[in-house]
User: Fold these one by one.
Assistant:
Number 1:
Amino acid sequence: ESRAANASNKEINIQWYIPPLAKPSIYTETKVLLLYAYNTKPVKISNIKTFSSMSIFSGHLWIPLARIISLREKLSNLKQQVEMLMQNSKSLSSASESISFLEQSETLKIISSKNPKMNVEKVHLDEKTEEMAKRCLSEVKALLSVVPALSLPLTEIPFDVTLQSLASLEDMFDPANGCIITEESLFNWIISLFD
């Protein structure tokens, strides 16, 4: 069966459209079109002529290309920072037991989720990385909000931070590609921004 006709879980599909470059005016910035579609319940389409669903939504946003590129770079830096923190945490835990448990837990706390893979472990960030994450996610919120000027900075991180969720966000803001987001807490936050 076609992937386009079925969605077994909640998911957001992100695609970018970069219009052919006409000669841009010096007074306007280049914008790209973010196309999104998501479902809030499993979907199976067997006949497009009779299909109707209250759980499928779609939309679009025009977003300045320069802001997307800048945000993607910041998200990439954030992901690298989290990877370094996780690596440091692994090094600390495998080091001699002379390092106290308290020092280790202050450096980074990792709580394993149901899935034992490293990229889906929930990460508790140190203060510096948490502030970096709040700034990046506030920028995501402003870009995806219907009225960006009314978008207030985040005071807390709105979803479980994992390497997978950060990689998904980084992919989401790659105008050369699209992505599908299925992580539940990230999914819920992003669709709340589209509403």
Note: The chain is about 40% helix and 20% strand.
Number 2:
Amino acid sequence: MAVRACGLIIYRRLQSAPSSRVTDGIEYLLLQTSYGTHHWTPPKGHVDPGEDDLQTAFRETQEEAGLQASQLTLIEGYTKELHYPAHGKPKTVVYWLAEVKDCNTEIKLSEEHQAFQWLKLEDACKFAEYEDMQATLKEAHEFLCSKK
């Protein structure tokens, strides 16, 4: 049986972005793990008993980045499911897309992470070393571009 995890791809829109290119002002939140290879990832974690996937995504975001559900706007119409091996077992991760309502909201890391960065798409893809995560960030960005 696959390990199941859920998370949110969090982004913010910088106020200074010119209105003609709305997507120029988008930055994605990545967290650097304090364990293993110190990889960069959106907030995510394992589904607890009795939780549904979206509850898990919001709980993990609160635990790992200090962001409450009330500080985020869930973007309708976008989910992405990734499948890959982790520690010799199949893993499924489901991501939703969410915007921080206030782009200056403070990020409060848990002990699971040692750093965070707000990154434009190109840099976010460099930090996210895994190809499937890079593709997911690009797909989310294209989704946001298509909404305007």
Note: The chain has a mean pLDDT of 92.
Number 3:
Amino acid sequence: MFVYTKQYGLGAEEEAIFVRCVSVMGNLADQLYYPCEHVAWAADAKILHVESAPWWTLSTALWGLSLLLGIARSLWMVLKLRQRLRSPLAAFTSRLPQGKRRAVEAQIRSEALTLLSNLADLANAVHWLPPGILWAGRFPPWLVGLLGTISSLLSMYQAVGAGGQAYTAP
């Protein structure tokens, strides 16, 4: 994760300032999450002599923040990509070539799957926060498992190339 964050930097490659800012903030939340989670685990394992509950809460809140930022990014990307496909300018000029159109449609599907996966994870993240925050602690075990399974299956589907649909024309 650190290598990815270091390579991404401040997102100079991104065209949109919104995507750049949301991505950098998400990377920051991710980088802060890991040490907090490790401190919480070490406190539970009696390696560190600190109370673990605040560290678990902080790490879960950072996880939720990262997911919220990812959701905002994916929503923005889907909207912008759909605008590109439905641009009124495309009606007056030549439409997108078939290969590029397929690539944009594949990117929309990928962002939609990421969005759904992040939503399932966010529901679980809120569940693991301290009681009194939204629906924290109210999910039955089967629902926590179902949401985690849905998120994992969506992520695995994307990892294997979405069944060959991620084709991009030269």
Note: Confidence is low (pLDDT under 50) at residues 165-170.
Number 4:
Amino acid sequence: FLHGAGYSAMCGHAVLALGRFALDYGLVAAPSRPETAVRLRCPCGPVTAFVPWDGRCSGNPVRFHSVPAFAAATDLAIDVPGHGMVVVDIGYGGTFYAFLSAEQLGLDVCSSKTRDLVSAASAVTEAVKKQFKLHHPESEDLAFLYGTILTDGKDAFTEEPTTNICVFADEQVDRSPTGSGVTARIALQYHKGLIQLNQTRTFRSSTTGSLFTGKAVQATKFGKYNAVVVEVSGEAFYTGTATFTVEEEDPLKYGFFFK
């Protein structure tokens, strides 16, 4: 899962896309109709995608079942330079995110400038990293904060979509509602008693308006944490194919980075 600052432990939208790719390019020996399970071993652990299959090609929507997701911390007071004290939740959905309403930072996730949202979210990420130590039940390599997700504050269950923006890695903004973020947010809402098993919520990206749905489908344990398996559903589309070539004489064959 490649991004501008390296690689991620989990990417939900990529899982949706990989599920379709695996079927369309013959990586699954005997796909079944009307839906085929595609099991992927992600850096965070095994994830299963469920992909529509009509006998010729894959379709949408695709859904996946997450690794166990849990609330790492709730109502955590964090001092954010330039913003003062804020209260965040930290959830794990294949990677760790800090969550808080944009309102706490004097912003609106739907109407504020993206640059302002990115700057504020990045400040929260850096503050949490300095003030709270994360722990992963199986691998300390996964015990890092991937980013901050600013929300509209609508955490209680409702049929209406809830909107968020995910700022991750080196100030990148997700074009989708963020599959691993939806997973972590569902885990937090379940932990707080705001939703029940199999209650479906809809999540909207504030940047593009694209939608995912998510629901907790199974309660489980993950180390010391009470956890849930979350089902996330959304759409993935082909945009093109590419072939990359490396010539030994190329002095920039390992790539370069402009910022």
Note: The chain has a mean pLDDT of 94.
